[in-house]
Amino acid sequence: MLVLAALLTGCEPTHAGEGPKPVDCTVVVDGPEKADTTQRIEGRVRFRCGKPGAEKLTVKIRMEQKSGSKWKVVTSKSFTVKGKQTIAAELKYQNRTVSIGCKDGTFRTVVDWSRTSRGNTESDNLISGSMSNPCKSLFGDR
User: Which of 23, 35, 21, 137 is nearest to 95 (CA)?
Assistant: First the structure.
């Protein structure tokens, strides 16, 4: 009987008598790069959460361009996903992008995110590395 009780309690992770453990989410920011099929620069955020998904995952993604010693926002987008929309297959991610037309300059992607799960909120700010002139080929025009 004790073995059965121990097996059943292992089905849902808990911590210190507080009930089910919050769902973990992974959020990754990718630096700006030239889009594969268009003359655009894209910044991307990738994310995935454990099952059954986050109650709410809110993400604000923005692309910034360096202007002197400061960074200025050139485009941004916010979105909120819930439950199954936050889950991805093993070793895969959901993703969202922002983009602008190709132009010279130094760019970076910045993401502010917040996850709510089982009464717990977690948030962070992520900044990609910078990329100079993402639309220009390293090998010159061919």
Answer: 35
